[in-house]
Amino acid sequence: MKLPLRLRIVITLIVSFLIWGHLAWDHFHGGIPSHFLLHNKDLPGIPNWWGGIVLPFFTWLLLYRIHKRIDSADTSLATQNLRSTVLPFISAASVSIVIAVCFSNSIEVTDYIMGSIFILAFFLPLYKSEYLLGWVLGAAFTFGAIIPMAFGSLLALVFFGCYKIPRGLINYFGSKKT
To answer: Is 35 helix (H, G, I), strand (E, B) or coil?
Structure first.
């Protein structure tokens, strides 16, 4: 199963309606909140309405990247299908929701969860777009959209290194032996 344009449009519209519905709710129930970098009120605040502008574009970009990977004309590159991207998306969304709930309720396990994610990054390709999209959409309700996008993108870059560098070194030194 592939990721057609129509499905990408529908998913992006759903995300747009959800974020703007959440912003409308916030507006009529006390105002749209701002989130501060590093949870420090001395640092600049990022209002949630930025997420209403940026999150649909971010969603579209990540869906396009998934589409390009699984709909590749080159069959050697098209190693995945749409079904194989759903579980990583749901997993990342679930983990980010758990982190958001723990953070909101002052449950001190987020460090352990993040440590586990860093360990998993050596074994799973956590840098892929479906993981990033799940992370951002799962955390957007609690943290707004901008902070999860920035933090998730930075994590994706680190996870890329964690996944690719050891494999590259193994391949390099493995080819030197022979």
So the answer is: strand
Establish how many alpha carbons lie within 13 A of residue 65's alpha carbon, considering only the half-sphere containing its beta carbon: 12
For residue 178, the model assigns a pLDDT of 60
pLDDT per position as a tens digit, 108-125: 999 999 999 999 999 999
Angle between helical axes of 110-120 and 146-177 (0-180°, round to 10): 40
- The per-residue pLDDT of the chain, averaged, comes to 91
User: What is the reported pTM?
Assistant: 0.88
Contact 46, 144 (CB under 8 A): yes
Burial 22-31 (b: 16+ CB within 10 A, else e): bbeeeeeeee
CA separation, residue 116 to residues 45, 131, 152 (Å): 29, 15, 15
Q: Which of 57, 148, 50 is nearest to 99 (CA)?
A: 148
DSSP annotation of 127 reads: T
Q: Could you tell me which of 118, 142, 140 has the C-alpha nearest to residue 55?
A: 140
Q: What angle do CA 83, 91, 59 make, to 5 degrees?
A: 70
Every domain of the chain and the residues it spans: 5-177
Alpha helices by DSSP H, the chain:
5-28, 49-70, 83-104, 110-120, 129-143, 146-177
